[in-house]
Q: What sequence folds into this?
């Protein structure tokens, strides 16, 4: 009877976890997460800050999108290995925020709402893209180490 070690001890899984941990502990990743949380808080409160809270549908939209953006982008520090793919949802929320004043039914496209949503949505979109790219550039993946001439895990001819 053969016993197999648990998947938790697999070398590739351990390497992936350490790569994700390195990606989230860099000052760049921490700055992105902080700016993203501030962006989400502003997006949620923007109808009352910028003064278009009388546009009820857009105010509710921004409140929901801002809270969702904070929850998505705030999860990266604690559980990056499970949430890094959700950065693409943050990109979608940023794009929706830019389009929302024209797409939501009613007269939502006032100067205040357009300027606030376009700037906030653009920042949210860029921060989402930066977080999505953090795993590729911040962690030093095996593929990157092979391109630089490094051996990478399990590349030893003796194994």
A:
């Amino acid at each position: 009877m053969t016993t197999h070690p648990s998947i938790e001890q697999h070398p590739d899984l351990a390497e992936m976890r350490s790569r994700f941990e390195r990606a989230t502990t860099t000052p760049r990743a921490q700055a992105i997460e902080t700016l993203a949380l501030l962006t989400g808080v502003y997006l949620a409160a923007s109808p009352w800050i910028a003064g278009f809270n009388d546009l009820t549908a857009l105010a509710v939209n921004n409140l929901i999108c801002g809270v969702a953006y904070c929850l998505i982008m705030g999860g990266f520090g604690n559980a990056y290995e499970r949430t890094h793919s959700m950065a693409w949802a943050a990109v979608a929320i940023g794009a929706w925020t830019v389009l929302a004043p024209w797409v939501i039914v009613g007269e939502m496209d006032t100067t205040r709402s357009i300027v606030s949503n376009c700037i906030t949505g653009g920042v949210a979109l860029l921060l989402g893209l930066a977080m999505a790219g953090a795993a590729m550039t911040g962690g030093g993946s095996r593929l990157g180490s092979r391109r630089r001439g490094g051996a990478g895990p399990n590349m030893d001819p003796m194994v």
Summary: The chain is about 70% helix and 0% strand. Residues 138-159 have pLDDT under 50 and may be disordered.
